[in-house]
What does this fold into?
Amino acid sequence: MAGAYDDRDGVIWMDGELVNWREAKVHVLTHGLHYGSSVFEGERAYNGKIFKSREHSERLLKSGEYMDIPIPYSVDDIEAAKQEVLTASGLQDAYVRAVCWRGSGEDMGVASANNPVRMAVAAWEWGAYYGDAKFNGAKLDIAKWQRPSPKTIPCFAKAAGLYMICTMSKHAAEAKGCSDAMMLDYRGYVAEATGANLFFVKDGEVHTPTPDCFLNGITRQTVVGMLQERGIKVIERHIMPEELEGFEQCWLTGTAAEVTPVGQIGDYTFEVGALARDIAESYEKLVRA
It folds into this structure.
């Protein structure tokens, strides 16, 4: 499947039924379009099965709770919708997007309690998020935008509005020839990339930022478990950006990113070493098991 995302063959699940891909539309006065009242999940299916599917569905509902968007579907409903889309699409390896938003209704100001909450699920083919970087090591810029304090917004929700600074940071990075950007948090600690978590290696131990103001990714949690099963010490802590000079390896984790080694962040360089490659290869085997 290729081309613009609004002009493709296939079907999309919307509010309980499959509709033609090109007819999956919302009104221009949809609240989510104007105020970012939307939460979503990004998932990958391998060999026809979504990896950690139920955990994603549970997180979608939790994001809705955080953002005061009462999603009118249960975990089982969401699971059934995703499976219906995968079956109808005929795809075995696919990216799956479930999204819920405040639709158009009686409210068109900041408040939207009278507007219906809508949901859609789509699936499409999507290869390596960072292209060849998955094998050669991604190059990251250092973003000027920082992840916000938990006192400013529910930062543990996977919410559309929280990604705007990510979009701007990734645009700036790509303009410099980078694949992505590393973001600091509001205190100046290393946080994450624009859509992936970070891991670093030093002296046989793995260091990863404490997810206290950003999403503790499902892939991140999976990789932490894989490392611990290997007897490798994983240290979750606050990391200052100047510490990057002392790390030997680095990689990104995320549903879209999967496990992608990093070769450079700003002026800091890393080897695409044995541990990074081993975790990337082992994750690939795990999701296809």
